[in-house]
Fold this protein.
Amino acid sequence: MSTSTTSAPPGTEDPPAARAAPRRRGDRTPARTGWRRALRRDWQLYSLAILPLLFFLVFRYLPMIGNVIAFRRFEPGGSIFGEEWVGLRYVRMFLSDPTFWQVFRNTLWIGGLTLLFCFPIPIVLALLLNEVRRRSLKRFVQSVSYLPHFLSIVIVAGITLQMLASDGPVNHVLGWFGHEPIRFIQEPEWFRTIYVGSEIWQTAGWGTILYLAALTTIDEDLYEAARIDGANRWQQIWHVTLPGIRPTMVTLLILNIGTFMAVGFEKVLLLYNPLTYPTADVISTYVYRAGVESNSFSYAAAIGLFEAIIGLVLITTANQLSRRTVGTSLW
Protein backbone atom coordinates (compact mmCIF):
# COMPACT_ATOMS: atom_id res chain seq x y z
CA MET A 1 0.00 0.00 0.00
CA SER A 2 1.52 3.26 -1.06
CA THR A 3 0.66 6.81 -0.29
CA SER A 4 0.96 9.49 -2.85
CA THR A 5 2.23 12.89 -1.99
CA THR A 6 1.94 15.96 -4.06
CA SER A 7 4.95 18.19 -4.24
CA ALA A 8 4.85 21.81 -5.12
CA PRO A 9 6.15 22.71 -8.51
CA PRO A 10 9.70 24.00 -8.69
CA GLY A 11 10.09 27.67 -7.91
CA THR A 12 6.98 27.88 -5.72
CA GLU A 13 8.61 26.72 -2.42
CA ASP A 14 9.55 29.30 0.14
CA PRO A 15 13.29 29.73 0.39
CA PRO A 16 14.86 28.44 3.63
CA ALA A 17 15.84 31.92 4.73
CA ALA A 18 12.27 33.10 4.33
CA ARG A 19 10.87 30.17 6.33
CA ALA A 20 13.42 30.56 9.14
CA ALA A 21 13.39 34.37 9.27
CA PRO A 22 11.98 35.47 12.63
CA ARG A 23 9.54 38.27 13.00
CA ARG A 24 11.61 41.23 14.07
CA ARG A 25 8.72 43.13 15.61
CA GLY A 26 7.63 40.08 17.59
CA ASP A 27 11.20 39.62 18.94
CA ARG A 28 11.53 43.22 20.00
CA THR A 29 8.36 43.23 22.06
CA PRO A 30 9.54 40.74 24.74
CA ALA A 31 12.90 42.44 25.00
CA ARG A 32 11.23 45.82 25.32
CA THR A 33 8.68 44.75 27.92
CA GLY A 34 10.68 42.08 29.75
CA TRP A 35 12.38 44.48 32.14
CA ARG A 36 9.07 46.24 32.79
CA ARG A 37 7.41 42.95 33.69
CA ALA A 38 10.32 42.05 35.96
CA LEU A 39 10.16 45.47 37.60
CA ARG A 40 6.44 45.12 38.31
CA ARG A 41 6.89 41.61 39.65
CA ASP A 42 9.93 42.26 41.88
CA TRP A 43 9.62 45.97 42.62
CA GLN A 44 10.22 45.35 46.34
CA LEU A 45 13.64 43.87 45.61
CA TYR A 46 14.58 46.60 43.14
CA SER A 47 13.55 49.26 45.65
CA LEU A 48 16.34 48.07 47.95
CA ALA A 49 18.85 49.36 45.40
CA ILE A 50 17.53 52.93 45.52
CA LEU A 51 19.49 54.05 48.60
CA PRO A 52 22.84 52.53 47.46
CA LEU A 53 22.40 54.11 44.04
CA LEU A 54 21.64 57.48 45.62
CA PHE A 55 24.69 57.12 47.85
CA PHE A 56 27.02 56.49 44.92
CA LEU A 57 25.37 59.24 42.89
CA VAL A 58 25.67 61.88 45.63
CA PHE A 59 28.99 60.92 47.22
CA ARG A 60 30.88 59.31 44.32
CA TYR A 61 29.75 60.57 40.92
CA LEU A 62 28.61 64.13 41.55
CA PRO A 63 31.87 65.05 43.35
CA MET A 64 33.73 64.07 40.17
CA ILE A 65 32.58 67.37 38.71
CA GLY A 66 34.84 69.09 41.23
CA ASN A 67 37.90 67.64 39.50
CA VAL A 68 37.69 70.62 37.17
CA ILE A 69 39.44 72.74 39.81
CA ALA A 70 42.59 70.74 39.07
CA PHE A 71 42.76 72.89 35.92
CA ARG A 72 41.34 76.10 37.36
CA ARG A 73 42.51 78.44 40.12
CA PHE A 74 40.22 77.93 43.08
CA GLU A 75 39.90 80.34 45.99
CA PRO A 76 37.89 79.61 49.15
CA GLY A 77 34.65 81.58 49.09
CA GLY A 78 34.67 81.93 45.31
CA SER A 79 33.07 79.84 42.58
CA ILE A 80 33.04 76.11 43.24
CA PHE A 81 34.41 75.60 39.72
CA GLY A 82 37.34 77.96 40.14
CA GLU A 83 38.06 81.53 39.18
CA GLU A 84 40.12 81.17 35.99
CA TRP A 85 41.47 78.48 33.72
CA VAL A 86 45.15 77.68 34.34
CA GLY A 87 45.48 74.46 32.33
CA LEU A 88 48.20 72.07 33.49
CA ARG A 89 49.85 74.53 35.86
CA TYR A 90 49.18 72.48 39.00
CA VAL A 91 50.14 69.26 37.24
CA ARG A 92 53.53 70.73 36.37
CA MET A 93 53.87 71.97 39.95
CA PHE A 94 53.56 68.56 41.60
CA LEU A 95 55.57 66.81 38.90
CA SER A 96 58.47 69.15 39.62
CA ASP A 97 58.03 68.99 43.41
CA PRO A 98 60.63 66.72 45.12
CA THR A 99 58.32 66.25 48.10
CA PHE A 100 55.64 64.77 45.86
CA TRP A 101 58.01 62.14 44.47
CA GLN A 102 59.06 61.24 48.00
CA VAL A 103 55.46 60.60 49.06
CA PHE A 104 54.87 58.80 45.76
CA ARG A 105 57.69 56.37 46.56
CA ASN A 106 56.37 55.93 50.08
CA THR A 107 52.94 55.11 48.66
CA LEU A 108 54.42 52.48 46.36
CA TRP A 109 56.43 50.96 49.21
CA ILE A 110 53.58 50.78 51.71
CA GLY A 111 51.04 49.70 49.09
CA GLY A 112 53.37 46.99 47.78
CA LEU A 113 54.17 45.63 51.25
CA THR A 114 50.49 45.67 52.20
CA LEU A 115 49.58 43.73 49.05
CA LEU A 116 52.48 41.31 49.50
CA PHE A 117 51.60 40.35 53.08
CA CYS A 118 47.92 41.16 53.60
CA PHE A 119 46.68 39.35 50.49
CA PRO A 120 48.09 35.81 50.99
CA ILE A 121 47.77 35.61 54.80
CA PRO A 122 43.92 35.32 54.77
CA ILE A 123 44.26 32.52 52.22
CA VAL A 124 46.72 30.63 54.42
CA LEU A 125 44.56 31.19 57.50
CA ALA A 126 41.45 29.95 55.67
CA LEU A 127 43.28 26.81 54.53
CA LEU A 128 44.47 26.13 58.07
CA LEU A 129 41.00 26.65 59.55
CA ASN A 130 39.56 24.37 56.89
CA GLU A 131 41.82 21.57 58.14
CA VAL A 132 40.75 21.96 61.78
CA ARG A 133 38.29 19.21 62.72
CA ARG A 134 37.44 20.32 66.27
CA ARG A 135 34.53 22.75 65.96
CA SER A 136 35.18 24.41 69.31
CA LEU A 137 38.79 25.22 68.42
CA LYS A 138 37.81 26.40 64.96
CA ARG A 139 35.14 28.75 66.29
CA PHE A 140 37.50 30.12 68.94
CA VAL A 141 40.21 30.91 66.37
CA GLN A 142 37.66 32.48 64.04
CA SER A 143 36.22 34.68 66.77
CA VAL A 144 39.65 35.85 67.93
CA SER A 145 40.84 36.59 64.40
CA TYR A 146 37.62 38.37 63.37
CA LEU A 147 37.46 40.64 66.42
CA PRO A 148 40.03 43.30 65.32
CA HIS A 149 37.99 44.04 62.19
CA PHE A 150 35.14 45.39 64.30
CA LEU A 151 37.39 47.79 66.16
CA SER A 152 37.56 51.40 65.04
CA ILE A 153 40.72 52.49 63.25
CA VAL A 154 41.18 55.04 66.03
CA ILE A 155 41.17 52.24 68.61
CA VAL A 156 43.56 50.12 66.54
CA ALA A 157 45.95 53.05 66.16
CA GLY A 158 45.68 53.82 69.87
CA ILE A 159 46.47 50.23 70.83
CA THR A 160 49.42 50.20 68.44
CA LEU A 161 50.84 53.45 69.82
CA GLN A 162 50.44 52.27 73.42
CA MET A 163 52.01 48.90 72.74
CA LEU A 164 55.02 50.42 70.99
CA ALA A 165 55.56 53.43 73.22
CA SER A 166 58.94 53.94 74.87
CA ASP A 167 57.48 52.68 78.17
CA GLY A 168 55.03 50.27 76.53
CA PRO A 169 54.74 46.49 76.87
CA VAL A 170 56.97 45.71 73.88
CA ASN A 171 59.87 47.74 75.28
CA HIS A 172 59.31 46.19 78.71
CA VAL A 173 59.73 42.74 77.19
CA LEU A 174 62.87 43.89 75.36
CA GLY A 175 64.20 45.24 78.67
CA TRP A 176 63.89 41.79 80.26
CA PHE A 177 66.42 40.56 77.68
CA GLY A 178 68.77 43.47 78.34
CA HIS A 179 67.84 45.42 75.22
CA GLU A 180 67.62 49.20 75.27
CA PRO A 181 64.17 50.72 74.60
CA ILE A 182 63.44 51.33 70.94
CA ARG A 183 61.58 54.45 69.83
CA PHE A 184 59.31 52.66 67.38
CA ILE A 185 56.99 55.62 66.87
CA GLN A 186 59.72 58.21 66.36
CA GLU A 187 62.09 56.29 64.08
CA PRO A 188 61.17 56.40 60.36
CA GLU A 189 62.61 52.96 59.52
CA TRP A 190 60.04 51.26 61.77
CA PHE A 191 56.90 52.87 60.36
CA ARG A 192 56.33 50.52 57.42
CA THR A 193 56.70 47.48 59.63
CA ILE A 194 54.30 48.94 62.18
CA TYR A 195 51.72 49.86 59.55
CA VAL A 196 51.79 46.51 57.73
CA GLY A 197 51.77 44.58 61.02
CA SER A 198 48.72 46.43 62.32
CA GLU A 199 47.00 45.99 58.96
CA ILE A 200 47.57 42.23 59.06
CA TRP A 201 46.25 42.02 62.60
CA GLN A 202 43.12 43.99 61.73
CA THR A 203 42.18 42.50 58.35
CA ALA A 204 43.54 38.93 58.17
CA GLY A 205 40.72 37.29 60.11
CA TRP A 206 37.96 39.11 58.28
CA GLY A 207 39.48 38.29 54.91
CA THR A 208 39.21 34.56 55.63
CA ILE A 209 35.39 34.72 55.55
CA LEU A 210 35.24 34.95 51.76
CA TYR A 211 37.75 32.14 51.31
CA LEU A 212 35.99 29.88 53.81
CA ALA A 213 32.75 30.50 51.92
CA ALA A 214 34.50 29.62 48.66
CA LEU A 215 35.88 26.42 50.20
CA THR A 216 32.38 25.18 50.93
CA THR A 217 31.57 25.19 47.19
CA ILE A 218 34.27 22.64 46.32
CA ASP A 219 32.83 19.24 45.50
CA GLU A 220 33.85 16.57 48.03
CA ASP A 221 34.02 14.02 45.21
CA LEU A 222 37.13 15.76 43.96
CA TYR A 223 38.89 15.10 47.25
CA GLU A 224 37.72 11.49 47.15
CA ALA A 225 39.07 11.06 43.62
CA ALA A 226 42.38 12.63 44.66
CA ARG A 227 42.68 10.25 47.64
CA ILE A 228 41.97 7.29 45.38
CA ASP A 229 44.78 8.47 43.09
CA GLY A 230 47.13 8.47 46.08
CA ALA A 231 47.33 12.22 46.72
CA ASN A 232 48.32 13.21 50.24
CA ARG A 233 46.83 16.16 52.10
CA TRP A 234 49.29 18.72 50.71
CA GLN A 235 48.72 17.50 47.16
CA GLN A 236 44.95 17.72 47.66
CA ILE A 237 45.32 21.35 48.79
CA TRP A 238 47.53 22.19 45.83
CA HIS A 239 45.54 20.40 43.10
CA VAL A 240 41.96 20.63 44.43
CA THR A 241 41.55 23.32 47.07
CA LEU A 242 43.56 26.15 45.51
CA PRO A 243 42.08 25.71 42.00
CA GLY A 244 38.63 25.64 43.60
CA ILE A 245 39.04 29.04 45.23
CA ARG A 246 41.05 30.57 42.40
CA PRO A 247 38.18 32.74 41.04
CA THR A 248 37.72 34.29 44.49
CA MET A 249 41.46 34.82 44.85
CA VAL A 250 41.73 36.52 41.46
CA THR A 251 38.72 38.76 42.09
CA LEU A 252 40.06 39.97 45.44
CA LEU A 253 43.54 40.43 43.97
CA ILE A 254 42.17 42.69 41.23
CA LEU A 255 40.25 44.73 43.80
CA ASN A 256 43.36 45.05 45.99
CA ILE A 257 45.44 46.16 43.01
CA GLY A 258 42.78 48.76 42.18
CA THR A 259 43.20 50.28 45.65
CA PHE A 260 46.97 49.93 45.56
CA MET A 261 47.57 53.68 45.54
CA ALA A 262 44.83 54.47 48.07
CA VAL A 263 46.88 53.45 51.11
CA GLY A 264 44.83 53.68 54.33
CA PHE A 265 44.62 57.42 54.93
CA GLU A 266 43.08 57.28 58.40
CA LYS A 267 45.58 54.83 59.87
CA VAL A 268 48.60 56.59 58.39
CA LEU A 269 47.30 59.93 59.67
CA LEU A 270 46.88 58.51 63.17
CA LEU A 271 50.21 56.69 63.31
CA TYR A 272 52.66 59.06 61.66
CA ASN A 273 54.29 62.25 62.96
CA PRO A 274 56.73 64.81 61.49
CA LEU A 275 59.68 62.62 62.51
CA THR A 276 58.44 59.72 60.35
CA TYR A 277 57.46 61.79 57.29
CA PRO A 278 60.42 60.44 55.22
CA THR A 279 58.88 56.93 55.19
CA ALA A 280 55.29 57.45 56.38
CA ASP A 281 53.96 60.36 54.31
CA VAL A 282 51.82 59.03 51.45
CA ILE A 283 49.84 60.71 48.68
CA SER A 284 46.56 60.81 50.60
CA THR A 285 48.11 62.48 53.67
CA TYR A 286 50.10 64.86 51.45
CA VAL A 287 46.89 65.84 49.65
CA TYR A 288 45.22 66.40 53.03
CA ARG A 289 47.96 68.72 54.22
CA ALA A 290 48.18 70.56 50.91
CA GLY A 291 44.43 70.98 50.49
CA VAL A 292 42.93 71.29 53.97
CA GLU A 293 45.80 72.69 56.02
CA SER A 294 47.42 74.88 53.34
CA ASN A 295 44.21 75.79 51.44
CA SER A 296 45.81 74.77 48.10
CA PHE A 297 42.68 73.01 46.88
CA SER A 298 43.49 73.14 43.17
CA TYR A 299 46.96 71.70 43.79
CA ALA A 300 45.49 68.92 45.96
CA ALA A 301 42.81 68.18 43.36
CA ALA A 302 45.46 67.78 40.66
CA ILE A 303 47.37 65.27 42.79
CA GLY A 304 44.17 63.39 43.66
CA LEU A 305 43.21 63.19 39.99
CA PHE A 306 46.68 61.86 39.18
CA GLU A 307 46.30 59.17 41.85
CA ALA A 308 42.85 58.20 40.57
CA ILE A 309 44.13 57.82 37.00
CA ILE A 310 46.93 55.52 38.19
CA GLY A 311 44.41 53.42 40.14
CA LEU A 312 42.17 53.15 37.06
CA VAL A 313 45.09 52.03 34.91
CA LEU A 314 46.17 49.46 37.51
CA ILE A 315 42.76 47.83 37.94
CA THR A 316 42.10 47.80 34.18
CA THR A 317 45.49 46.24 33.45
CA ALA A 318 45.09 43.65 36.20
CA ASN A 319 41.64 42.75 34.91
CA GLN A 320 42.89 42.28 31.35
CA LEU A 321 45.89 40.18 32.45
CA SER A 322 43.65 38.02 34.62
CA ARG A 323 41.21 37.46 31.77
CA ARG A 324 43.96 36.38 29.37
CA THR A 325 46.02 34.24 31.76
CA VAL A 326 43.53 32.78 34.24
CA GLY A 327 40.21 33.25 32.45
CA THR A 328 38.61 35.07 35.41
CA SER A 329 37.93 38.81 35.53
CA LEU A 330 35.62 41.38 37.04
CA TRP A 331 34.19 42.45 33.68
User: Anything to note?
Assistant: Residues 1-21 have pLDDT under 50 and may be disordered. The radius of gyration is 29 Å. The longest strand covers residues 72-73.
